[in-house]
């Protein structure tokens, strides 16, 4: 049987035909697509996620504080830091390859070297109970942590030597502390001048002055971020995870982060109470915490990829 390429070479000059044949044989195979689901070990109980160098993401465990590195291209994973039995909740990567990790009910935060897995520093943040140090964002040389049980933000200097002392910034202005989970996800405004914090119990988004702690409600045109969790700003777009709603609200903000409007909603049949969100290329990655699962210590867990 004569192939299409063979028929073409019969009507072309020998030199041109040979060149086409070499080019066809040398053409690379189609790139393998990134997987839409990355499985985690049974019982891992993920919550926070952060992307780092290359195509690597890091996921922390609520069960024991383990931190696992994931290859987003292949889906392969390995534990890079063994936890001490305490929780690893929200996390962010800095430009030095250090992972800043919220400590949940333990009221602390850790800094982990992603190259060695060593814990470089531990900070005791909460001075009183109850506490749940939930999420973190890096801005202006500091790591900012939320506490879902206290009306404060914690500021930790994020310098080279990790010797700075944490300070508390009380939340004021429009902020009202209520029973249940309060301050949860945190990120920066598009212009970087303030912080954005979602209050899970009300679904309200607040713009917080990082110096005074003055919190003002962001006008989202009546949209509520019910069960609001992890936040991510890219340009003027805010991605807000609504965990038990199994969706991500996509909002367009003004530069100062004082107003916004819902422009899209992302979801996936793979979502099973996603909590936090990290970006790689044109995709978002979300760990499925599966809150409410009756057998969390043996259940299956995964990370879901969705296109932005």
What is this structure, in a nutshell?
The protein is mostly beta strands. It contains two helices and 25 strands. The strands form six sheets. The protein has a five-stranded mixed β-sheet with strand order 14-18-17-16-15, with no helix packed on it.
Architecture overview:
Helices cover 7% and strands 43% of the residues. It has 308 residues and is mainly beta. The protein folds into 2 domains: 1-30, no CATH class; 38-307, TolB, C-terminal domain (Neuraminidase), CATH 2.120.10.30. The strands form 6 sheets. The chain has a 5-stranded mixed beta sheet, with no helix packed on it. α1 (4-11) runs antiparallel to α2 (14-26). It is globular and about 45 Å long. The termini are far apart. The model is unreliable at 1-29 (pLDDT under 50).
Layout of secondary structure:
Layout lengths: L3 H8 L2 H13 L10 E4 L5 E6 L4 E6 L5 E5 L5 E5 L9 E3 L4 E5 L5 E6 L5 E6 L8 E7 L2 E6 L4 E6 L9 E4 L1 E2 L9 E6 L6 E5 L4 E5 L5 E4 L10 E7 L2 E6 L4 E7 L6 E7 L11 E3 L2 E5 L13 E7 L1
Parallel strand pairs: 14-18
Antiparallel strand pairs: 1-25, 2-3, 3-4, 4-5, 6-7, 7-8, 8-9, 10-11, 11-12, 12-13, 15-16, 16-17, 17-18, 19-20, 20-21, 21-22, 23-24, 24-25
Helix pairs in contact: 1-2
């Amino acid at each position: 049987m004569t192939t299409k390429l063979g028929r073409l070479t019969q009507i072309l000059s020998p030199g041109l035909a040979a060149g086409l044949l070499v080019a066809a044989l040398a053409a690379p195979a189609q790139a393998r697509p990134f997987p839409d689901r990355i499985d985690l070990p049974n019982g891992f109980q993920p919550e926070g996620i952060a992307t780092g160098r290359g195509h690597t993401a890091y996921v922390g465990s609520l069960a024991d504080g383990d931190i696992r590195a994931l290859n987003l291209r292949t889906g392969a994973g390995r534990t890079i830091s063994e936890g001490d039995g305490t929780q690893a909740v929200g996390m962010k990567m800095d430009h030095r390859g250090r992972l800043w990790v919220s400590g949940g009910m333990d009221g602390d935060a850790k800094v982990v070297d992603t190259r060695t897995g060593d814990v470089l520093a531990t900070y005791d943040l909460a001075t009183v109970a109850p506490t749940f140090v939930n999420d973190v964002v890096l801005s202006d040389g500091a790591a900012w942590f939320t506490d879902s049980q206290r009306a404060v933000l914690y500021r930790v200097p994020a310098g080279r030597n990790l010797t700075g002392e944490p300070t508390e910034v009380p939340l004021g202005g429009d902020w009202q502390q209520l029973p249940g989970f309060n301050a949860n996800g945190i990120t920066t405004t598009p212009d970087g001048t303030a912080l954005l914090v979602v209050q899970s119990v009300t679904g309200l988004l607040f713009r917080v002055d990082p110096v005074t702690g003055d919190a003002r409600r962001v006008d989202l045109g009546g949209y509520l971020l019910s069960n609001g969790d992890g936040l991510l700003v890219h340009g003027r777009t805010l991605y807000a995870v609504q965990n038990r709603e199994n969706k991500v609200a996509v909002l367009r903000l003004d530069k100062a982060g004082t107003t916004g409007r819902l422009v899209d909603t992302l979801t996936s049949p793979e979502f099973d109470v996603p909590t936090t969100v990290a970006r790689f290329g044109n995709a978002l990655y979300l760990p499925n915490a599966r809150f409410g699962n009756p057998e969390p210590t043996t259940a299956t867990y995964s990370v879901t990829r969705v296109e932005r």
